[in-house]
Design brief:
The protein has helices spanning 33-43, 139-146, 157-165, 171-177, 225-234, 238-248, 264-274, 307-312, 331-347, 423-431, 434-448, 453-466, 468-480, and strands at 56-65, 84-93, 108-116, 119-126, 192-193, 198-201, 207-216, 254-262, 293-302, 325-326. By secondary structure, the chain is α+β, with helices and mostly antiparallel strands. The chain has two domains: 56-354, Beta Barrel (Catalase HpII,  Chain A, domain 1); 422-480, no CATH class. Strands 1, 2, 3, 4, 5, 6, 7, 8, 9 and 10 form a ten-stranded antiparallel beta sheet that branches. A hairpin with a 2-residue loop joins strand 3 (108-116) and strand 4 (119-126). The chain is globular. Pfam families: Catalase (PF00199), Catalase-rel (PF06628).
Length: 486
């Protein structure tokens, strides 16, 4: 037997089949509040979609500590081997709209939330260890090239490659994107990366810099380009269906959580030797220089009950770190620390942290009050904090971080002309098996065959600098498509 229908205020509805009208044939009466409320809510059922990462899937799980890293961090989450914490993960595509296909060639978002006893820790990353740009001031420009042309309302290969060809810093990520890893086989068969450089602080106040890695226990599995296109038409929700179904069947996906760790002195020596800025998001730390250290295991074992409430309204931010964790001078990270929370304020509202999926599992207290959806509003508690006239006794800066030394005058610095954007992209290319290189050439030739000779030649120049065989392979693939470029 179905439950009786009520209004949102709990008032029983006498008739959910017929509007109140003046006579059998109408017109309708404004006093029919159930009709009005039903239509008003229906008109407002769609909150603004995310500007990026609009199409996503989510699941809950458990993070288990398997190795002791307390020498690096005082975070209570890692206090003992075997300790567990509840998690939520949202996977996503980046450039497409909410109704786009799961199998499009695109990076994948891999956003992890761990509900710790000291608050929420959010690791908001991707399935790639690098990114297209190194400064957040260019992020809106880059994303505009991945969206729709403002005149035609069509995706534009010209916009994408015009941007990339003028930004050689993007070459490393472009190579990854157009390799087989640009079309992962669902979300269970891909790795995750924090991508940015973060920091950990131990009980002695010592800082190390780290990069987070989540290595799939299911094994890497990618879709051939033709299969990705086919599935986009046959089953555009392929990755969502695969993740939900696997968890429903009890086939819980797992990832090994690992760290790369370096002191400030080690990074300074590495930068002097390689010329690479360790905080540059377009670069990676090679494993031979900074080996992976095991930390724990992430398992996803519970599907959400309500997609809108628990996945669409999930609001993660890289600014959410707990005591014993910190940031780095990474310019892209610094921009994201502001941008993510600001996006949630616009998309969900000023009290989005009160929603169950976003609320910490530990007690919290602040002087924030009122505003829309103020669910946990403090009640009669004091809504202000006084000034300690006699001087406060702080427990350290921020979350207890040691002071970060700053160097140089405030200004806008562009070192792009002096930076190496080709070696790591070339290294990635040379690591690919021969068949995957051929796939890379074909995947690039598809959209590049649609753009002007000027942009093609500019982009080919970058491939040549990464590895002459890279440029030659793309030229051959373009020629096969009727574009004979010198």
């Amino acid at each position: 037997m179905s439950k009786p229908i009520t209004t949102a205020s709990g008032i029983p509805v006498a008739d959910n089949q017929n509007s109140a009208s003046a006579g059998v044939r109408g017109p309708l009466l404004l006093q029919d509040f159930h009709l009005i409320e039903k239509l008003q809510h229906f008109n407002r059922e769609r909150i603004p979609e995310r500007v990026v990462h609009a199409k996503g899937s989510g699941a809950y799980g458990i993070f288990t500590v398997t190795h002791d890293i307390s020498r690096y961090t005082k975070a209570k989450l890692f206090a003992a081997v075997g300790k567990q914490a509840e998690t939520f993960v949202r996977f996503s595509t980046v450039g497409g709209e909410k109704g786009s296909a799961d199998t499009e060639r695109d990076p994948r978002g891999f956003a992890l939330r761990v509900y710790t006893e000291e608050g929420n820790w959010d690791l908001v990353g991707n399935n790639t260890p690098m990114f297209f740009i190194k400064d957040g001031i260019k992020f809106p420009d880059f994303i505009h090239t991945q969206k729709r042309d403002p005149q035609t309302n069509l995706k534009s290969a010209t916009m994408m490659f015009d941007f990339w060809s003028k930004a050689p810093e993007s070459l490393h990520q472009v190579t990854m994107l157009f390799s087989d890893r640009g079309t992962p086989d669902g979300y269970r068969h891909m790795d995750g990366f924090g991508s940015h450089t973060f920091s950990l602080i131990n009980a002695a106040g010592e800082r190390v810099y780290v990069k987070w890695h989540l290595k799939t226990q299911q094994g890497i599995r990618n879709l051939a380009a033709a299969d990705a296109v086919r599935l986009a038409g046959e089953d555009p929700d392929y990755a969502q269906r695969d993740l939900f179904g696997a968890i429903e069947r009890g086939e819980f996906p797992r990832w090994d959580v690992k760290l790369q760790v370096a002191t400030e002195e080690q990074l300074a020596e590495w930068e002097a030797r390689t010329g690479w800025n360790p905080f540059d998001l377009t670069k990676v730390w090679p494993h031979k220089d900074f080996p992976l250290i095991p930390v724990g295991v992430l398992e996803l074992n519970r599907n959400p009950l309500n997609y809108h409430a628990e996945v669409e309204q999930a609001a993660l931010s890289p600014a959410n770190v707990v005591p014993g964790m910190g940031y780095s001078p990474d310019k892209m990270l610094q921009a994201r620390l502001f941008a993510y929370h600001d996006a949630q304020l616009y998309r969900l509202g000023t009290n989005h942290q009160h929603l169950p999926v976003n609320a910490p599992r530990c007690p919290f207290h602040n002087q924030q009050r009122d505003g829309a959806m103020a669910i946990a509003n403090g009640g009669a508690e004091q809504n202000y904090h006084t000034v300690e006239a006699g001087g406060s006794q702080p427990q350290g800066l921020g979350h207890g971080e040691p002071a970060l030394a700053l160097h140089g005058g405030a200004g806008r610095y562009d070192g792009r002309g002096q930076e190496d954007d080709y070696t790591q992209a070339g290294n990635l290319f040379r690591l690919l098996p021969e068949q995957e290189k051929q796939n890379l050439f074909a995947n690039l030739a598809g959209p590049m065959s649609q753009i002007s000779d000027e942009i093609i030649n500019r982009q080919l120049g970058h491939f040549d600098k990464a590895d002459p065989a890279y440029g030659a392979g793309v030229r051959a693939a373009l020629k096969a498509r009727g574009r004979n470029i010198g």
